[in-house]
Amino acid sequence: MSNPTAAMIVIGDEILSGRTQDTNSNHLAQQLTLLGIDLKEIRVVSDDERQIIHAVNALRMKYTNVFTSGGIGPTHDDITADCIAKALGVSIDVRADARAALAENYKNPEIELTEVRLRMARIPDGATLIDNPISKAPGFSIENVHVMAGVPAIFRAMLAGLLPNLVSGTIIQSKTVNVKLKEGDIAKKLGVIANENPDVAIGSYPYYDDGVFGCNLVVRSADAVMLENVTALIRKAFTSD
Amino acid sequence: MSNPTAAMIVIGDEILSGRTQDTNSNHLAQQLTLLGIDLKEIRVVSDDERQIIHAVNALRMKYTNVFTSGGIGPTHDDITADCIAKALGVSIDVRADARAALAENYKNPEIELTEVRLRMARIPDGATLIDNPISKAPGFSIENVHVMAGVPAIFRAMLAGLLPNLVSGTIIQSKTVNVKLKEGDIAKKLGVIANENPDVAIGSYPYYDDGVFGCNLVVRSADAVMLENVTALIRKAFTSD
């Protein structure tokens, strides 16, 4: 049986303007790899209703899980929750459980839970809350779409609570062989090894560092013995180790 | 007249497995912002023919420019050039000018330009080469699709040569005001300011750092006076500066 799959949607103009380097998708990728959930696609879109709805609907039909980060705060540019509700065709309103979670943050919630703060308790109908241990305003899962905050520390905390609830798959293990040669020097022999071992994925990731070319050859497989054998073949072919 | 637009396609399993943090799209975003070209979408896809072709065709119809990074080396997993040719419905073969560029890298090109290395001189019919001052193997532009290497130093060098050829737009300037308050404390008044100044874009980017919440309010406009005025309004409303 093949592994569950996933896509990530990063929502935020600040990524597209280059102001902020997105790190949430890299963190998600690493966590999903540990669970055997195959991340197939990442999309970064702007804080724009049409773009968000289009991406959510394209990806939730295609993959087992869709994760989003960004746009669930209280300010005017936070439109993710409303877009998700529209994408799924459900209503959205302040919900008692989300309001209660949010209230934990305040000494006098009756006064401090202002109208704008209550925007963070707006949850699409039928969603399950995702706990936010840091700033309390919850994320939510609806069908296969998991909606989380953009602030990296909060995204990570939400994800840590969410992941144990997801169906995991067969963990793909990997080994990396560093080769201090140009790709052109190894491509032919590497192609033969890749061809003769179709059940193992071999990726070549070249780098250029301080005037020196090299590449990392990454071998991936769910089968530990096969992984070990092909890695040994590659090591023997291209390194003096 | 509205600005030219752009999308980025990052090609590589190593990003989706979490092994590598993509930095090319952040660099591209910063460079495009300086030119007034609006980056609208980033997609990360795997080294998979169907996914690459789908992304290229979806985005080249939608945006003025499409940039790709990754998958143009000599190894078996480098399939980008062939996918671009398929996406655009043109043929692809080793081209004399690309071969000549590649040959500059070798003392004895007749011997060293092996069959696998010549894979890097395969260029879709009708494309223009993009110079690679570092490792010589060229990128290429075909119609509005610009195909570059994944190695960050090479991607940046190729981009630097390419950008002066593109049509630029009106540069959107921005100012950032750091506010040491939670978003919930400013959202209402900020919403009013945003509403009263519809020609200026105001984004709120919250952060959480060492137990402290704050946000950066980013004001964007092509009009320097408006930018200054709204920034001053925001500064007055939320800071003691």
Count of DSSP strands of chain A: 11
The parts of chain A where pLDDT drops under 50 for at least 5 residues are: none
What is the CATH topology classification name of the largest domain in chain A? Molybdenum Cofactor Biosythetic Enzyme, Chain A
The neighbouring-strand order within the major sheet of chain A is 2-1-3-8-7-6
Order of helices and strands of chain A, N to C? EHHEHEHEHHHEEEEHEHEEH
How confident overall, as mean pLDDT of chain A?
A: 95
Strand content of chain A: 25-35%
Helix percentage range of chain A: 25-40%
CATH architecture of the largest domain in chain A: 3-Layer(aba) Sandwich
Domain module tally of chain A: 2
Largest sheet of chain A: 6 strands, mixed
End-to-end separation of chain A = 37 Å
| Quaternary structure classification | homodimer
Secondary-structure-derived class of chain A? alpha/beta
Largest interface: A-B, 75 and 73 residues
CATH secondary-structure class of the largest domain in chain A: Alpha Beta
Q: What's the alpha carbon Rg of chain A, rounded to whole Å? A: 22 Å
CATH superfamily of the largest domain in chain A: MoaB/Mog-like domain
- Tell me the overall shape of chain A: elongated
Query: How many H/I helical runs of chain A?
Result: 10
